[in-house]
Design a protein that fits this description.
alpha/beta, Nucleotidyltransferase, domain 5, five-stranded mixed sheet, 12 helices, 14 strands
Length: 376
């Protein structure tokens, strides 16, 4: 355990301070130089760290600087009900190559397109060594079998997606719920050092939540924890994809915002959520009213999270983060009344909210090399 913790500390310091010398790592970490040297040599052998330039020194031996191996990457897949985005992501969380494919209700046909697109994206960066594939999913994944166990918006029958991709791509595949993946990305690449109680909420075609409580990522029995989007808040509300009525996501999702707009603009053409954001920005009153109603419902649902989990921070990922100046104040105002005691949680957009799911998919592969988070 101590060896693993020390390794995690050194790796994180390299990521944050690159290029950095072994001596600087020893000073920053408080570890003995011999210990740092052993860890660094291990990371170099594993190809996660590489040596770079030789620094200028006023006296003594000139140090060799260290940095992450930028030629190491993973294939990240953001799988959604109608579209999948596939990208190569490097160790610093940067997207190097990206493409999209349509997703149908036929998992066999959809997987064939996924594999073909993944190969094209991989071929676009021939200098990079691809270590694995991470998939961010609109549903829950059994941590033991790595199979989808609940994905009502995807509408797929039982299907072994992991095996279908691994057998074709010849790379290991890691799969996780989108909200959990985004949360892992924030823990890996983000700004959460020292924060032990966080909820990350994805707002897209549905609503998903990832929970980090007392320093642990909570997945629950069979990986099913966090389905607040399918908590009914109005038994007389619209029918949800899960088969129940009035779930939080039928009021707070991007699909809900489009429904609100259609109710206000009866003869409206078919539009996307991105169109709705643009129309509101251009001053369309119906579009603005629909988004404001969505923001109110998001904030009210946050009351469930605040009352039940008492997080110190709630992060939001999804397209709405691009219009946070509109959504943020409304969400904060609606959620403010649910704090039982103490200060309310900070409510912030996730890092790079629109591509958080891709970075989350990449973090699924990288997490075994970054600071470990205990999963309960």
């Amino acid at each position: 355990m101590a060896r693993r913790i020390n390794r995690d500390i050194v790796l994180e310091l390299i990521r944050e301070n690159q290029p950095v010398s072994r001596a600087d790592l020893s000073r920053s970490s408080g570890l003995q130089r011999s210990t740092v040297s052993q860890i660094v040599e291990q990371l170099i052998r594993e190809k996660w760290v590489r040596e770079g330039s030789i620094a200028v020194s006023a006296r003594g031996r000139r140090p060799t600087m260290l940095g992450l191996n930028e030629e190491l990457g993973v294939l990240a897949v953001d799988l959604r009900p109608s579209m999948a985005t596939i990208a190569v992501v490097d160790l610093n969380g940067r997207l190097l190559s990206r493409s999209q494919v349509p997703i149908s209700s036929d998992p066999v046909a959809a997987t064939r397109l996924l594999n073909e697109c993944a190969q094209r994206v991989r071929n676009a960066v021939p200098r990079h060594s691809i270590e694995g594939i991470g998939i961010s999913l609109p549903g829950r994944v059994d941590p033991t079998t790595q199979r989808l166990i609940f994905a009502p918006n995807l509408r797929w029958p039982d299907f072994d997606l992991k095996r279908a991709i691994e057998s074709k791509m010849r790379l290991p595949v890691k799969m996780e719920n989108a909200a959990n993946a985004c949360l892992i990305a924030e823990l890996t690449f983000g700004r959460l050092d020292g924060i032990r109680n966080i909820v990350l909420v994805t707002i897209s075609e549905g609503v998903g939540t990832g929970i980090f409580a007392n320093g642990h990522l909570i997945t629950g029995d069979g990986g099913r924890a966090g389905e607040f989007g399918h908590a009914p808040i109005d038994p007389n509300g619209p029918l949800c994809a899960c088969g129940r009525r009035g779930c939080w996501e039928v009021f707070a999702s991007c699909r809900a915002a489009l429904r609100y707009y259609r109710e206000l603009q009866r003869k409206s053409r078919d539009i996307t959520f991105h169109d709705l954001l643009l129309m509101a920005e251009e001053g369309n009153p119906q579009a603005g009213a629909a988004l404001d109603r969505q923001a109110q419902q998001i904030g009210r649902g946050f009351g469930l999270l605040i009352a039940g989990l008492a997080p110190s921070m709630i992060l939001v990922a999804g397209e709405i983060t691009g219009a946070w100046s509109r959504f943020g104040p409304i969400i904060e105002r609606e959620a403010a009344g649910f704090t039982v005691a103490g200060p309310p949680p900070k409510i912030l957009p996730a890092h790079e909210g629109e591509i958080a799911r891709l970075r989350g998919a990449a973090a699924l592969v990288f997490q075994r090399h970054w600071p470990d988070r205990e999963i309960l």
